[in-house]
Specification:
Length: 203
Amino acid sequence: MSLASLFAKSQSSFLLLAKEEEVSSPSVWDSIEGHWQELLQQAGMSLLIFAGFWVVAKIVQKVLTKVGTSQHIDQELASFIGRTAKISVLILGLITALSHLGIDVSAMVAGLGLTGFALGFALKDVISNVLAGVLILIYKPFQKDDCIKIKSYEGKVVSTDLRYTVLLSDGLTVYVPNSLLFTDAITVTCDAVTAEPEIESTE
């Protein structure tokens, strides 16, 4: 066998091997398309997971609000508990959905912790008022239409929400921060029961 025939035979074998390898190996476009399909599937599943948590959060909020109202808890406090539970479930759902996408949520959780600490330090007065309002609504040291005195503030209680207690004093509306009511002594000068005028019988 001559050298030319050997060279021609080896060249044909090389071309046949290259053609088989080209047929068996996927193209670059096929790999990109498969990657996008997998990514879209993961994104769709993550959206479904978050939507499920959203539905659960809405149900939990409604149930807690109704239970609080049925247990004669203040409407403002019941709504606050429901909203807090809803936000907690939504945060858990967001973390779960991002984790399903393959995102490392540990760094995000650490970042949220630092952000929460910074916000808590910046809004410490607001948070203290809200917490004091929750405790006042739970323990109820005074009620609506009671006359109370706290430091230099005195008047009839109009309403109490999560931030302020509204007093009516000499025709003026006074908003007293709840943190002040919770940390200082309160004097109830007259309550709503004894303040009601007695109805004399004409019989």
